[in-house]
Structures are given as C-alpha cells and as structure tokens.
Amino acid sequence: MSSKNLCEMDDSKKSEPKCPSSQQHALQKLFSETSEVKQSRHLCGDLIIKDKANTHYQAGIKAVDQLEFERAVICFTKAITLQTEQTQLYVARAEAYLQLCDFKSAALDYKHACNLEPQKKAHFHRLAFVYYLQGQCYCDRGMFLEALQSFAKAVELKPDFRPYHMRSLACLTALGRYSDAMRLVTNWLESETPSADLFTLRARLHHQLRQPMLCYYDLKSALKLNPSCPEARALLEMMEQGAERARQQAVTKAVEGELSDALAKITTALELNPENAQHYLFRGILYRRLKDFTAAIEDLMLAVEFCDDGAKHPEGEKPEESKDLEQDAHVQLVLAYNDFAVQCFTQGFYSEATMLLTKAIHEQRDESGLFINRGDCFFRQKEWLFALADYQQAEELDPKNTAICLRLAVIHNTLGLHSYENLNFQDAADKFSLAIKYNPGVSQYYGNRVKALFKLQRMEEATQDAVSALILDPANDELVPLLLRLFPGCSLSDVISSGMAQTVKAQLMERIQTWKLASFPVSRLSNKLERTVLRHDTDSQAKTDSVSASSREDVEGRFQPVEYTQDPVRSKEQVSDVVKKLLHQRQSLSYTGPRIAPLCITHHSEPAARTSKPPYSWRNFGGLGLNC
Q: What's the start-to-end Cα distance of the chain, in Å?
C-alpha cells in the first residue's frame, strides 16, 4: 500500500468524528416541527373537535325534530362533552329535558347557561319558567309544599311576573298558611295600584281567618273601585244575610231575658255588618241594661254617627226611617249618660256625674230631669249658685213639677242660712221667703225666717212665722225660746189657743192647699223618649213589641220620680209595716205636750190622676234629703 493511500486513510480517520454531529443535525432538521407546524396541527384538532361536536349537535336537533328526545339528550351530551363552554348546547339539552318532563335536569342546564352568559336575561326567565312547570306538576300531585318552593324560585328569578306570585299564593292557601298569604297580598296592595280583584282576594283571606270586619271593609273597597264586581258583591250579600240572622237571634234572646247571650249575638251581627246603625243602637241598649255604660255610650255615639253618614235621599234629604233611627239613638244616648251619672253619684263621684249630665244636656236641652240631676250634683259639691241655676232652668221647662219646687226650697233655704251667717239678715229673710214659697209645709223654713226677721226687728211677721212653725211641728224644741221671747208671760197652750194662732193656721192651710193644687207630682219625659227604640221588620213585629216593652220597663225607674204609682201588694205591705211600727213605738199616755197634730203634707196626686204609669221617668238622686 502506498504511502499516499495510508495518508488518505489517516485523513479519513481524522475526519470521522465530525460525521455524527452533522448527521444528527440533519436528522433534527428533517424530523423536528416548527412552531408554525405545531399551531397548524392544534388548529386542525380544534376544528376536528368542533366539527365532531357540531355533528352531535346536528344529530340532536334532528332527533328533536323526530321527537326522539332521549336520543337528542344523548347527542347533546356528547356535544357538551366535546364543547363544555358552548351555551347553546346546554340550552338545547335543557329543552330536550323539558320535553321529557325532567325538570331538575333542565333547571341544571339552564343554570349552566346563566353562569356562562349572566348578561342574557332570557336564560333567567326560561329557568323561572322551568321552575314554574315543576311547581305546577307538584300542585297537580298535591305536593303543595314542594310546589311552593318551586314557585318561590320562579318568583325570585322573575319577581315582576304576577302569575308566579299567584301560584305561590294558591299553594299558601292550600297549605292553610293564610297569614303568609295575607302578607303577600297586602304587599301587592301597598306596592302597586290597588284593584278590586286584590281587595276581593284579601277579603276572602280575611273570611278564611274569621276576621269578618276586615273582610267587610275590603269588600267595600273593592266595590268602590268596581261597583259591578260580582265576587265582592256576592260575598258581601252573604255577610249581610248572616248579620240579619244574628240580629234576629239577638232579639229572641233579649225577649227571653238572656241579655248576655243577646249581646253576643248582636256583636256577631256587627262584625258581619259593622256599618249598621240599628245594630249599634241595639247593642248600646243592651250594654246600658247590663250597666256597662262606657260601652253603651260608645255604641250609641257610633249609631248617631252612622245615622248622620247613612244613605240620603237623592235630593239630599234623609229618609223617614233614618230620621227615626237617629232620634232613637239620641234618646238612648241621653239615657245612658244619665244612668252613668246616677251610678257615679251613688258612689260619690260628683264631678264625673256632673260632666256626664252636661253631655246629656248638650244632646237634649228640653228635659227638666237632666237639670234636676245636675243640680243635685252641684248641691253635693256645695256649688249652691250652679245648683240654683239648674233648678231654675228645670222650673222653666216644667214649672209645675213638685220635685223642682222641693229642691228650689232647699237651695233657697241653704243660701238664706249662708246670708244669715254673714249677717246679711235682709237677704236671708228674702231667701227664706222664697223657700217657703216653693214649699210652704216645712217648719224649718219658718223658724229660720223668724230668726232673720227678729234681727230686723220685724216682730209681727216674726210672730206669725213662729206660730206657723209651731203648727207644722209642735214637737220642735228650738221654737220654745223664740216663742217665749215673742209671747212673754204666755204658755205654749195659750199661744196655740189664741185667735191669732187660729187665723195663722187657716192662712197656712190655705197656702199649702193652693201649693198642692198648683203642682204636678211627676216629671215626664218628652214624647221623644216615649218612642219605641227597637225597630224591626214586619215579620218580627211580635218580637219587637216584646223587646220594646222590656226596654220601657228597664227605663222606668232609671229616674225615680217624686211620685209614682205603687203596686197594690207593695202598698199593703207598707201599711202593715206602719201599723206594726206604731204598735211597737207607741207614745206614753201621760204625754203633756201641745194637743195639736202637725199638718200632714203629702205630695202625692189624687188616685184618679195616677191610674197609668208613665213610660219613661227620669231617675234622680234624691240626694238632698227630700222624699224624692
């Protein structure tokens, strides 16, 4: 081998290490991918996935068109597996679920759609509709609690859509949760424009909750907005019929004397028809008879108010029936004020009694009995001048009433004593003269005038008054010193048997007889108080007469008159008591006093004038020590 060949071989060996690196570079250049190639391959994969997902989607749509919803769900699910961020795929599968009545799955898919596109309100509204359909299915199966939960979700997603609220309300009603339903309807009425339907709806809820009064007023509001609302009018008529039945039952109970039961029945009638003045009048009378005067006054005032606000004639004039009802309410209100005042008076609350009587007088100014009673209250409070003014007003209204004369006599005598204590003897004598004018049969008045005349040195008049006082009350020891000073050196027998005494006695008897004939014994109410208070329909006229008679018997005796017709049995018992008292309290036969009996001053009318009992009599206090 030549050296040249050896050199070549050495050179080739020296160059061998460089071959592997060049080959590796070439191989890397051949088989390695550039970034452009990688991006191209990635885009190609996405397109393949999208294309495959679209294929599944189109298959699902085709299945839906062929009503094969289960296959459609499978296709849409495959598409969603490939494309999890596509909202339309969830919507499509949700609609397929709806066709299969799988509401839970449909709701889940629409929730995904809402999360992917929260700005799109249509998805939220469709989800609310899914909940609505789910709730409706629960309702059809009687599962109202689950239905209520579904409807509540629908309302939360679409709060302005009323049908969802109405279905929730229906579920609350079916579950018996009327209070929750009531709050829901009330919120609608407060937040929206009220309508007749809403008021009728709430009225029905009140009816279910046994709140008839609130039900009545809601029905009135509904008819005010829509007078032709048939539902409201039918329910209102039903309530009015129930009120009438309760009133008739109350009348029956009142006739039987069961006032508490009658009160419960008429209260039921008022709850069903709380704007009926006749019901308030009836209940006010029952309260007054049960001596619950505060409640009676409140009801009677409402009766008067409803009469004023009641239906009027088209020309503006009230119908005759309404006028009569209002008049009866005024009468009963006056009676309630007076009865309450009598009760306060008997318990010593004179100021309260005065206030009540003042209210009664404000209602009816032409009744003397009210002024008499208020005058008695002023008298007990030592308001002499106010008492005198009331007695004088009563005298103007009823000038021949004996009860008024007796009180005027007492008040003038009281004022005369005060003038005498203040050393105003002339004024005292004048006051005592007025007392004698109004009641000439009281010895004390003559005795008091004797003292005043004696101070005025009018001895002749004082002597006649002293003899008059002795004739009226022979056993009055206070007259003895005055008689001894006026008739020095004479005994009482000499004074009594004197001619002057006989003349004074004749004049005194004539004066007393004239006073008796000029006075009437009883104060009667005006014709307004004689009207029948309870008025009923023609069908219940018999019951009405019985109730009216019962009311009159109750009113009689509310104001005890000065004179009244006594029951014969009671009169016989009183005569027996008097006879027994005289037998057990006989005076000694050795009595050495004056042998003259006092005049028997009676303030009763003749029997012929007392054949009938007045329908109403003002009850008075008898608080002045008089036989009233």
A: 179
SS (H, E, C) 495-562: HHHCHHHHHHHHHHHHHHHHHHHCCECCCECCHHHHCCCCCCCHHHHHHHHHHHHHHHHHHCCCECCC
Residue at 164 is within a domain: yes
Tell me the residue range of the domain where 104 lies: 51-205
What CA–CA distance (Å, rounded) separates 335 from 370?
Answer: 10
Strand partners, 617: 524
Distant-in-sequence, close-in-space partners of 156: CB < 8 Å, separation ≥ 6: none
Q: Which CATH number belongs to the domain containing residue 167 in this structure?
A: 1.25.40.10
Residue 373 has pLDDT above 50, yes or no: yes
Q: How far is Cα 523 from Cα 614, in angstroms, rounded to an integer?
A: 9
123 assigned to some structural domain: yes
pLDDT given at position 416 = 93
Q: Give the mean model confidence (pLDDT) for residues 560-587.
A: 45
**298-311: pLDDT as tens digits:** 999 998 888 876 54
Q: How far is CA 556 from the centre of its chain?
A: 29
For the stretch 453-510, pLDDT in tens is 888 888 888 888 888 887 888 877 777 777 777 777 676 676 777 777 778 788 888 8
155: confidence class by pLDDT, cuts 50, 70, 90: confident
Is position 83 within any domain?
yes
Residue 93 lies in a domain: yes
Compute the 3-state secondary structure of the chain and give helix, strand, coil in percent, each to the nearest 5.
Answer: 75, 0, 25
Question: Are 252 and 542 a contacting pair, CB within 8 Å?
Answer: no
**How far from the centroid of its chain's Cα atoms is residue 196's Cα?**
26
451: its two tokens: 């003292």
Of residues 433, 382, 436, the one with CA closest to residue 405: 436
Structure tokens at 347: 């318990």
Task: Tell me, yes or no, if the pTM score tops 0.90.
Answer: no
Q: What is the pLDDT of residues 259-285, one digit of tens each?
A: 999 999 999 999 999 988 899 999 999
Sign of CA pseudo-dihedral 147, 153, 154, 159: positive
Residue ranges of alpha helices (H) inside 141-258 are 144-157, 162-174, 178-191, 196-208, 212-225, 230-255
Domain count, the chain: 1
Three-class secondary structure assignment of 60-112: HHHHHHCCCHHHHHHHHHHHHHHCCCCHHHHHHHHHHHHHCCCHHHHHHHHHH
Whole-number pLDDT of residue 272: 92
